[in-house]
């Protein structure tokens, strides 16, 4: 499949946004888990 430059840029942008969304979600979940563990210890 041949993409035009504009289509490629749109795909890259969407991919970037998806990765960022996943990254933020994982970081938030990881942060919550870490906070829970710390509150359980104290």
Total beta strands: 0
N-to-C order of helices and strands: H
Q: How many H/I helices?
A: 1
**Largest pleated sheet:** none
- Indicate the mean pLDDT: 88
Which bin fits the share of residues in helices? over 70%
**Shape estimate:** rod-shaped
Flag low-confidence runs. none
Counting helices, strands and paired strands, the structural category is mainly alpha
Provide structural commentary:
This protein is mainly α. It contains 1 helix and no strands. The protein has one helix spanning 5-41. 0% of the residues are buried.
What is the fold's blueprint, element by element?
Layout: H1 5-41
Short summary:
The chain has one helix at residues 5-41.
Q: What distinguishing features does this structure have?
A:
mainly alpha, about 90% helix, about 40 residues, single chain
């Amino acid at each position: 499949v041949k993409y035009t430059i504009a289509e490629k840029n749109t795909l890259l942008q969407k991919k970037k946004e998806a990765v960022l969304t996943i990254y933020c979600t994982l970081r938030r979940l990881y942060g919550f888990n870490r906070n829970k563990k710390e509150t359980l210890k104290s």
